[in-house]
Amino acid sequence: MAKIYSKITGTGGYLPTKKLSNYDLEKIVETSHQWIVDRTGIRNRHIAEDNQSTSDLGLYASEEAIKNAGLKNNDIDLIIVATTTPDQVFPSTACLLQQKLKINNNCPAFDVQAVCSGFVYALSVADSFIKTKSAKNALVVGAETLSRIVNWHDRTTCVLFGDGAGAVVLSASEKPGILSTHLHANGSYAELLQVQGGIGNKDSDNNHQFIEMKGNEVFKMAVNTLGKIADETLKKHNMQKEDIDWLVPHQANLRIINATAKKLRLDPEKVIITVQEQGNTSSASVPLALHTGVSDGRIKEGETILLEAFGGGFTWGSALLKL
Ligand code: ACO
What we know:
Blueprint: E1 5-14, E2 19-21, H1 22-26, H2 33-40, E3 44-46, H3 54-68, E4 78-82, H4 93-100, E5 109-112, H5 118-131, E6 137-144, H6 155-158, E7 164-173, E8 178-185, E9 193-194, E10 212-213, H7 215-236, E11 246-249, H8 254-263, H9 275-278, H10 285-295, E12 304-311, E13 315-322
Parallel strand pairs: 4-5, 4-6, 11-12
Antiparallel strand pairs: 1-7, 2-3, 6-7, 8-13, 9-10, 12-13
The chain binds acetyl coenzyme *A (ACO).
Acetyl coenzyme *A binds next to helix 2, helix 6 and helix 7.
């Protein structure tokens, strides 16, 4: 019997229309357009309207991904949403999205929380469902309204983040698609990047509902770890750096992306970069970047793509795939 792979058959993305530029931020905190561009590469980020929730952003991205896969909503038989900013404590954002997509086939739907690595984690779970024949057409979404957990008085973090959603449909295929996924976490670094408050934490107060980050330490760990995960992924397949056609990295900071590309000896032209106009959209950043590269025609069928991400936890991971 032919081996079953999971293959990306459709991508989608959505960014709220409201934009917040570095110049807008100059009016909110003591910062400058030039400082933000020099340290991060970011120029703009998108911010959800007050009446838009994470599942609303996910809905637009999902509809586009399902359409691009040539499917109907009810063909989806698994929904996984990676998010750190769920609409509600429960039901999961995936269940709310299922309702908004009017999917009425009782397919499983659940959320995955691994902050900026969430999409790679969710993709890995969906890949396992498909390979074990528990699903045929999985909808995998990364969606965030990060602006809701940003402290707009803290210039060290508020300039970095944005809202958005990206989605893929992963379908069972006899042709190679996802070649491998690699997931890691080390909770001993929790304090370097966190939102302390939480429903299950009685000690948390209103001062701890926002992102707190020791940026410099996160930066060093991110560069180091992303280089290592790329090596781990290539080693598994006896592949050389030159065998990668495209790097689709988590979009946290242009300097982190450039450092990773340099380690991989990748021509900057072979890296999909969206951070300048989107900021860090956490779990949405990798699928949004992938969608950008696919929809503008740069990434072509049959090419080899390395996805990688690093985020709070710390969590990190990669996926090597053929489109
Ligand atoms: N505007 C102007 N000055 C600022 C700003 C700002 N927005 N933010 C900080 N500064 C100041 C600091 O106060 C500091 O001033 P001082 O020297 O007088 O103390 C100076 O700039 C340098 O600060 P650093 O923190 O050392 O700046 P750095 O070069 O490290 O850049 C940054 C900060 C951009 C946050 C960087 O560390 C970074 O990108 N870190 C990684 C973030 C990341 O990758 N996160 C990934 C995961 S996110 C997730 O999982 C949700």
